[in-house]
Structures are given as C-alpha cells and as structure tokens.
Amino acid sequence: MKIIQKRLCIFTHYSKYSYIPQYVRMYVNELSNYFDQVILVTNRRTINSDIHQLSQNITLLLVENEGYDLGMFYKAYQSIDPTDFCQIACINDSNILFNELKPIFNWGEKHFHDFWGLVDSHEKPWFSTHQNNYHIQSHFVVFNQNAIDKLPAFFEELNMLDIFDEKDSLLLRKTVINNWEIGLTQFMMKQGLNYGSYIDSRSYSSLYLSGKLTNVGHKLYFELIQSGYPLIKKKIITKSNWKDSFHPGRHWKKMIRQYGNQDWEIEDLIDELVKINHDSGNQSLNRLKVKFKQAYNLLTSNDVA
C-alpha cells in the first residue's frame, strides 16, 4: 500500500513585470516552510535571474494566462500526480504577507478538516446560481486527502476547455466566481466532506457590523490585523480611497510596520508596494489625497488662529 505524506502548495501569480516581486517571494518562501514542494505558477514571460532568491523546494511553472487563478491552478495540477500528495494547497497572490503563517497551519493541523481555508464568506453575488452561497474564499484553500480524491470529478463538472476559450473578460470573471470561488466549496460540501475556515467571517461581521454580511478581508482588514491576521489584501493598497485620510492609524504602511515581522525586510516590502500602487493607476487618487490633506491642514490651522 502506498503511504503518502508529501504536501504540495500551488501558488498562482500574475504580473506584468519581468521579475518575481518581493511580496510574492516573501509569501512563497514562507509557504515553503510548511510544504515539501511549492509550485509558483505564473503567466508566461521573460523572468530575470532573481529566481535564486526562492527556497530550494520552490519550482517555477510558466503558463498562458487563461481562466485567472483557476486556470493557473488547473494547469499546475495537470502537471503533477495528485496521488503523490496527502495535502494540496491552492494559494494566490491577492494578499500581501507580512508575518509568519505558523498560527494558521497550527490551526489547520488541529482541526482535521478535509477541506479548509483562510477566510469564509456568506456573500451572494447577483449572478450566483447557487441557493447556498457559503464558501471558503479561493485565495487560500487547502485540500487534504479526501478532498484531493474529489478534485478530478470537480474539474470534470467545470468543463475547463470552455473556460479557457472564453474571451469575454466580464463573463469569464462571473463564471470563475460562480463555479470556482463559490462552486468549489459547494461541491465539497455536497460530497459530505468536513470543512472549515481560520477566520469565521460571520463572527467578525456580528462583532463589528451588527451582523451585516461583508467581505471581511476588505471591510474589516484593520480589525483582522489587530487580532493577529498576518495578511492584507493587495486591493487595500492599490485601491485605497479618500476615506483613509480620516483614519491615518489604519493606513496600510503604518499597519505593516507595526504588525510586520521585524526579522523580515519590511521597509523594502513597503517601498515595492508603493511602486506597485503608483503603477496601478492610483496617481490621481494620491494627488487628490495630498490636496485634501493640505486643505484640511489649512482649515484646522485657521481654526486654531
């Protein structure tokens, strides 16, 4: 009888840069402490020589950008023999990691779930075809043995060729959210598998939003990080808004400095994220925030006078 003890992480990443960004390297290098093998799968492009900064058990897989993170995960999955592993994780680059993942994986070891993840959600998109929309958010999911055994049937239901052929980006996004983001959890639940999440979104919503359902990673990131959560959504940085000016203590830079691992290159990470923020087209917003701050300072100085 084959005894399987190896663990695999498939990390999906998209970038326009000709290098692997530091925030990705930090994330996969930390993940390499919890898996025997990490496959960093990313869109096909020329990658420069900074690959040597990755841990030895990390391999790079370049693929065509089709089907978002679902497509990347599927292509990496097709490149392996899943029966070689007792655990397969699917994690993407939509979060910035600034501290260790040890508490999360310790939690996963203690709870013996067939299928688990970082954050769950009860939100229902308007285009959802599901009656029950509960799901483990797909940016960080872990399949243990019973769930690994169900993946071939799940992919067969998805019809991946149709997803790869879809050229309408809006329709593709809806399909991926409906069939992958929500559909994966619903499929595993219908198979009778045991599931759970490290962050219970309903508890956080009840505590801070009077039970209103929300994406806690976006709306309650400050509260999550204060409680020890070691990540922040990249969209918090690239799509920050004018309301942040009223809450300087919640600014992502301050939070990463305060809660980031002091043994990591946190300032280099922040510098890179500032560059990504500017490259993402947030220049006009940044200028607006500067003007708002100048006007606010002028008004408050006049009041004092």
Radius of gyration equals: 20 Å
Class by SSE composition: alpha/beta
Distance between the termini: 83 Å
The helix/strand series, from N terminus to C terminus, equals EHEEHEEHEEEHHHEHHHEHHHH
Mean pLDDT: 90
Question: How many alpha or pi helices?
Answer: 13
For the biggest sheet, the summary is: 8 strands, mixed
- Rough outline: globular
Strand tally = 10
Poorly predicted residue ranges: none
Quote the beta fraction. Answer: 15-25%
The percentage helix is: 40-55%
What would a concise description of this structure say?
With 305 residues, this protein is of the alpha/beta class. It has 13 helices and 10 strands. 33% of the residues are buried.
Give the tags.
single chain, two-stranded antiparallel ribbon, alpha/beta, 305 residues, 8-stranded mixed beta sheet
